[in-house]
Amino acid sequence: MIHKAHAPYFSFTRGETPVFLHIPHSSVRIPEEWKSDFVISSEALAHEAQWMGDLYTDELFFNTSRKYYTLTSQISRLVVDVERFEDDAKEGMSAYGMGAVYEKTSNGAWMKSFSAQRREEYLHTIFRPYHAALNALIQDCIDRFGYCFIIDCHSFPSEPRYYEDQTPNRPDICLGTTKGYAPEFTPDWSIELCTTYFSSQNYSVKLDTPFSGTILPNDLVKQEAYKGKMHSIMLEINRKLYMDEHEFTKKASFHTLQNQIQNCLAQIEDRVKEKTGTN
User: Are 215 and 230 in contact (CB under 8 A)?
Assistant: First the structure.
């Protein structure tokens, strides 16, 4: 199903309930085999990996007591960003040097130098196997339960970077949906559930602001047979809620937020089990 040779680049679990956690940006690891392409100092690279990472989202969302399907990248997005389009012509962030294979830092400085052949190595070795694993795991979930609910797990900076939506007063929680391009894949009940829950915890919530969209498996999403069998929502957490954004350390509020996120996931799981008739 999933090639073990690519295990250093991602980890996964096969769940016991039709809920899937996708955690693509939590890692800051730069594997040795790719470091030679970076043209900035090791100190600058380490800082940029932390600055750009969705730090601690693997801990905020992952709960060992619940048996969800999971797929987690084990490398920094500075190496390969698995949530970009593979084709730079389709990827808006490639204009900033942040396509699937990053070239520039978050302030626009050159960070990496590589040939077209080397880019293909990144895609062949990391990007495509990752998406093959994503497709395989979701396929497995649907085969077993008849359904898969995907939660795309992210965090975002409290102040916008120069290439991001500049709308002020960023919310505490951003819900990313497919409403702008494939509305059938983000059901209204999931938006209502997440909005109601986080609002009840005194967090501000916005829909598709400052980020929109959510992950879907490329191989399955265009097949008519899978419509209605998978849904997806993105949960973006404002980093100011749980970490010092300059020191990259957890705040005292971390565990409270972690428990709140877990409670929201549990409510989603209960709704999904009700929908699918699973225990």
Answer: no
